[in-house]
Amino acid sequence: RPYLVSEFGPKGYWDPKYNETKNNSVIEESDPEKADWYKKQWTSYVNSYKGYNIGGFAYCWHDRMEGSYTWFGLTDFKGRPKPAYYALKEVWTGVTQETLPEFTINCPAELKPGVEYAFAAVTKTKNTSDLKYEWRLLKDEYLDKVDEIDISEDPSKVTITIPKEPSDYRLYLYVVDKNNQRVTTASVPIKVSKRIPQ
Fold it and tell me: Distance between CA atoms of 170 and 128, rounded to whole angstroms?
């Protein structure tokens, strides 16, 4: 009987077999890595068995805000297409469209609660003058916003006062084109451990 692949998408954040961790916090894959994974799944598990199945559903349309604020989604929470959107568009239509370059967040190796640190958006692409930067600091568990970010004169750089409350936090970066039509994201976990009694 024909079958349907009812869900395919990024690797599950809950499975340590597929993910790297730092200080017991899951490292999120980059948007280009997710885009390649979407293409591989479609090509290997759906299209390769064409005639035996009736297709598959990419999971999911926009940021689901599960695992992290940006873990899932072909578009972000504002509806702006991510690289995964264009990756699937390419395998479905043959039309290739330029996506934004990959970004990472440069951060200090060690972070102490209550101390201010500098973070920066980093890319290998030289021409970034037309790009806009949006930053968010959220708690991992309920995605509560934490207002500890100061944007510098260069919007690709921020200063953050690390929260004193013990919790898992995550810093998010959204890089958007000048027309606000395309986006690529990055995130980095920030762990504030429980205080050790003196």
Answer: 24
Identity (one letter) of the amino acid at 193? Answer: S
Note the pLDDT tens digit of each residue in 87-138: 999 999 999 988 899 999 999 988 999 999 999 999 998 777 889 999 999 9
8 CB-contact burial (10 Å; exposed 0-12 / middle 13-18 / buried 19+): middle
Q: What is the 3-state secondary structure (H, E, C) of 136-167?
A: EEEECCCCCECCCEEECCCCCEEEEECCCCCE
Spatial separation of the C-alpha atoms in residues 88 and 95, rounded to whole Å: 10
Please give the sequence-ordered ranges of beta strands (E in DSSP) within the chain, or none if there are none. Answer: 3-8, 21-22, 25-26, 53-58, 104-106, 116-122, 132-139, 149-151, 157-161, 167-176, 183-192
Can you tell me which residue has the tokens 């762990």? 191
The pTM is what? 0.90
Backbone angles phi, psi at 89, to 5 degrees: -60, -40
**Residue 22: which residues within 8 A CB-CB, separation 6 or more?**
189
User: How far, in Å, CA of 166 to CA of 94, rounded?
Assistant: 48
DSSP character for 109?
S
Beta carbons of 99 and 169 less than 8 angstroms apart: no
pLDDT tens digits, 48-64: 999 999 999 999 999 98
